[in-house]
Amino acid sequence: MAHKKAGGSTRNGRDSESKRLGVKAYGGQVI
């Protein structure tokens, strides 16, 4: 369930949240 939430979060909040946790936490897993 973390992947589904991460993908949606990075896509919707692609401002600062995705750059902070998205790229650091989900960046390595999703990408």
Automatic annotation (TrEMBL):
Renumbered residue ranges of the record's region Disordered: 1-31
Transmembrane segments: none
UniProt key word Cytoplasm: no
GO MF term set: structural constituent of ribosome
Any GO CC annotation of this UniProt entry: ribosome
Swiss-Prot/TrEMBL keywords: Ribonucleoprotein, Ribosomal protein
GO biological process terms held by the UniProt record: translation
Protein name, as recorded: 50S ribosomal protein L27
Biological source species: Candidatus Tenderia electrophaga
Primary gene name: rpmA
